[in-house]
Amino acid sequence: MSNTLIQNIILQLQDVQEQENWLDENFKNKIGSVTEDKVFNRPLPELHSVAEMISHVLVWRIETIRKLKNMDAKLTVDSPENWRTNDELMAIGWTNLKDDFFQSLYTLIDILADKDDTFLSERYRNDYSFKYLIEGLIHHDLYHLGQLGIIIKFLGLEK
C-alpha cells in the first residue's frame, strides 16, 4: 500500500493551517493576530469579517468531510450556512468557531491517513475524483487565507 500522495496532501493541509511554509502564512498565525473584539467586525461593508471567513472555510471543510465519508452532502453557494451572518456567529462564539475550524483539519487527516493513493482516483459524485475534491479544498483554503490577510490589514487601519 502506497500513500505517498496522501501524505503529501496531509502535509499541505497542515502547512496551510498551522505550519511553516513557503508563503510564511497560515490560518493559525493569521487569526491569532486578531483580538476577539475585532473578529466580528467588517472593516468595509464589502469585506467579510474574520469570523465570517473562518465559518465559510469551515463549512466547505465539513462538506468535504461528508463527501469523503460518503455521506449526504448538499452544500451549495446559495446555502444559508455558506455565509453565516455575524449575529449567527456571535451566538456560536469565537472560541467555538475557532475550535471547530481547527478540529476540521484533524478530522480530515484522520479520514485520509489510512487511505492509500488509489483512493484519490475514486469518484465521489458527478464524476469528480477525491483528488480533485481535496486539491480544490486546499486551493479554497489558500484563496481565503489571502482574503483574511486583506481583512486583517483593514482592521488594523480602523480608528
UniProtKB/TrEMBL annotation:
Gene3D superfamilies for this protein: dinb family like domain
InterPro entries: DinB/YfiT-like
Superkingdom of origin: Bacteria
UniProt name for this protein: DinB family protein
Organism expressing this protein natively: Sphingobacterium arenae
